[in-house]
Amino acid sequence: MKVPLLDLKAQYSAIKGDIETAIAEVLDTQQFILGPKVEQCESRIAAYSACAYGIGVSSGSDALLACLMAENIGAGDEVITTPYTFFATAGAIARVGATPVFVDINPATYNIDTAQIAAKITKKTRAIIPVHLYGQMADMAPIMQMAEGHKMIVIEDAAQAIGAEHNGKRAGSIGHYGCFSFFPSKNLGAAGDGGMIVTNDAGRAQKLRILRNHGSEPKYFHKVVGSNFRLDAIQAAIVTVKLRYLDSWTAGRQRNAKKYEQLFADAKLPVITPLVVTDRHIFNQYVIRVSRRNELQAYLHGKGIGTEIYYPVPLHLQECFAYLGYAPGALPESEGAAKDTMALPIYPELAPQQLEYVVDCVRAFMTAISSAGGRDNELQEAPRR
Ligand SMILES: *Cc1c(COP(=O)(O)O)cnc(C)c1O
Q1: Any residues with CB less than 8 A from the CB of 77 and at least 6 apart, and which?
Q2: Which terminal residue of the chain, N or C, has fewer Cβ atoms less than 10 Å from its own Cβ?
Q3: pLDDT in the model for residue 249
Q4: What is the Å distance from ligand 1's center to 86 Cα?
Q5: Within this chain, do residues 279 and 237 fall inside the same structural domain, yes or no?
Q6: What is the pLDDT of residue 371?
Q7: How far is CA 78 from the centre of its chain?
Q8: Final residue of a domain: which of 215, 243, 271?
Q9: What's the predicted TM-score (pTM) here?
Q10: Judgement on whether residues 230 and 295 belong to the same structural domain of the protein
Q11: Ligand 1 binding pocket includes 315 (Cβ within 6 Å)
Q12: 136 lines ligand 1 (CB under 6 A)
């Protein structure tokens, strides 16, 4: 049996007609840059995220970058974030010339450990970028409290968490800004790159609209330097169509997560499954924690099961951040998670038999290593990466 990590063709075949119609509408109008399709997408995503304003941008990475630019954060400023995230989170901070300050994660949720933030706040700290990793929200209440006390900006990196909710609040609606990504593997994916910033602040929304269009306001008059961070009209049209299905896809991911949870519990395996602390976890990824992770991944690969490691090297140990001076061991929980975690297929169209097969294969691997002290034949046949 084949169980890919993600199968976007299954999703597309169910909504092909709608998508083709939406693309054809853009082609018929030949309005490719901003315009009504982008505005419609912005208002729908803003409403979905319980925010007043949406600003369509070129990617989740550019969403983060534009927010930092809108706050004039740059050289000499520090921005606190997690090292256990996709590179873009810290890349945006470095890109504006500010210094990323990494705070370790809570190993139970893989999100930033809010108890460790206060010790990292200095006079130079201008902002915090919490990441809602894998679809589960970071603990926002203490973050907002600290931000208020120290006049810091909060930019939620909600790239993996559109529609996630906690204490009645949607991801992206709590901080000064929320950033979404429409990268195809996100829960709401475009047919290419795209992103959105949401905010409840009219002034910030206005500033972002100008920044994403080269700081031009009115046309050809530039008070600030921005860039081309615009969301494509075709991508906006596609995202708007797909948004109608998002809740049903999320329900499918949640159903699959529940099934995995049950199967792993029944199998009594030494597998740490995701701890759900958010009211609405949208399961962009289903990440388990095991010992001998790399061997298990190779074994599953040999059985036709796709997996991924998010993320093998925490950001504080990336070569490009060597100048920040973090040594191995500096942020032990992030380093431990990077070593032991692995994402299993969780996309909504998976059949129950596929999930059962995944857990059966994990069980077979673990039985083999425990009965053979780790030198089982079957393991040696597993492909090496
Ligand atoms: C995907 C992602 C981004 C970047 O989004 P792009 O649209 O690919 O630029 C940023 N942060 C996190 C946590 C992500 O998962």
Answers
A1: 98, 99, 124, 125, 126, 127
A2: C
A3: 98
A4: 6
A5: no
A6: 84
A7: 22
A8: 243
A9: 0.95
A10: no
A11: no
A12: no
